[in-house]
């Protein structure tokens, strides 16, 4: 039973958040594009996993301290690689598509890419429970990731998407906006992971919640700002 349960409960958290964010779009995106971006977001999870597994021995070969290796792995190998790959879906699938015609579409498509990524990542992690895992364990882990990692992926990619939108609206800011957006997304993604993995006591819950809350507030304000921009964007 673990295989169908893992697939269902791996995808459901992403679909719930997807439905939530799609409701924020006054002019709905084409269903075909939503499915396409979500699917490609899932696909880039595979190279992300391969890179993360492959680069860990490479990092260890430098014989750095365990602490430095850990932080490099979390921020560079995991957070940066994942944010670049999710952005890659937007860049190659969405950026020059006619469906991208409003400023609000940019963070929205980044979120769709991120939720696709999170869906397959969830499935892989649920598979890690083992084929004999009780259904209750699968449900509990899925629920934890719904309010944790899945939401984080959506929020950091949406935040990155806001900076991408700014760069499209103001080409002179492109050299600054995109690196800043990638840097913010990578840093907060990595910081969240560090507190989840290394946090002790209340900080293991408190700081991730603060990160998610801060990102949620920022993205709420960013969406309201981008919705007010009526100029059609061209890329």
Short note summarizing the structure:
The chain has 235 residues and is an all-alpha fold.
Topology (elements, then pairings):
Layout: H1 2-22, H2 31-43, H3 45-60, H4 66-94, H5 105-127, H6 135-147, H7 149-169, H8 174-198, H9 203-227
Helix pairs in contact: 1-5, 1-6, 2-4, 2-5, 3-4, 4-5, 4-8, 5-7, 6-7, 7-8, 7-9, 8-9
Distance between the termini: 46 Å
In the residues, how many domains can be counted? 1
Q: What does the main sheet amount to?
A: none
Q: Please state the CA-atom Rg, rounded to the nearest Å.
A: 18 Å
Apparent shape: globular
Q: Estimate the mean pLDDT confidence.
A: 94
Write structural notes for this entry.
- The protein contains nine helices and no strands.
- It is an all-alpha fold.
- The chain has one domain (2-227).
- Helix 1 (2-22) runs antiparallel to helix 5 (105-127) and helix 1 packs parallel to helix 6 (135-147).
Task: Pick out its properties.
single chain; 79% helix; 0% strand
């Amino acid at each position: 039973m673990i295989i169908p349960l893992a697939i269902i409960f791996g995808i459901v958290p992403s679909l719930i958040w997807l439905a939530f964010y799609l409701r924020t779009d006054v002019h709905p995106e084409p269903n075909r594009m939503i499915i396409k971006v979500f699917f490609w977001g899932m696909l880039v999870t595979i190279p992300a996993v391969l890179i993360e597994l492959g680069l860990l021995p490479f990092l260890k070969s430098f014989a750095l301290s365990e602490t430095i290796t850990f932080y490099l792995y979390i921020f560079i190998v995991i957070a940066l690689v994942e944010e670049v790959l999710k952005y890659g879906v937007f860049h190659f699938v969405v950026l020059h598509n006619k469906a991208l015609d409003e400023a609000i579409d940019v963070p929205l498509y980044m979120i769709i890419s991120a939720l696709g990524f999170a869906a397959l990542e969830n499935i892989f992690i649920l598979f890690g429970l083992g084929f004999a895992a009780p259904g209750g364990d699968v449900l509990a882990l899925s629920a934890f990731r719904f309010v944790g990692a899945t939401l984080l992926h959506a929020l950091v990619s949406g935040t990155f998407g806001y900076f991408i939108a700014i760069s499209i609206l103001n080409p002179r800011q492109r050299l600054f906006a995109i690196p800043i957006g990638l840097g913010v997304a990578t840093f907060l993604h990595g910081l969240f992971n560090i507190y989840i993995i290394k946090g002790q006591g209340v900080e293991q819950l408190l700081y991730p919640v603060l990160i998610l809350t801060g990102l949620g507030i920022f993205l709420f304000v960013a969406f309201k700002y981008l919705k007010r921009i009526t100029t059609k964007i061209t890329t």
